[in-house]
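User: Sequence in, structure out. Go.
Assistant: Echoing your sequence, followed by the structure tokens.
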Amino acid sequence: MNLSPEQQLLFEEKTKALAAITRASEDIIFYSCNRDIEKAGTYVFDEAWPTERDLEKHLKTPYFLSWWEWVKPYITQDIELNIASLDAFHHLGTSKN
């Protein structure tokens, strides 16, 4: 994303608000956004949804669409989206000796 320092602060405020609303109003496992310290203007969202349908529903909510409309003009490269089943991830604490 190509953001001035002021726009970056606003992006982070808007994203924190989106995360708070999402966590409070939707059935989500986890939801986070992190700034890449090696690539300026790059943010990484990590989200886990119970189902892909729940994610699709989230992407149609008024609060997500409002956030997206603000963000879209600042996107400077393709968005990389990876979707995987939670079963594809390693489960900590489940190894047997």
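User: And one key feature?
Assistant: The chain has a mean pLDDT of 87.
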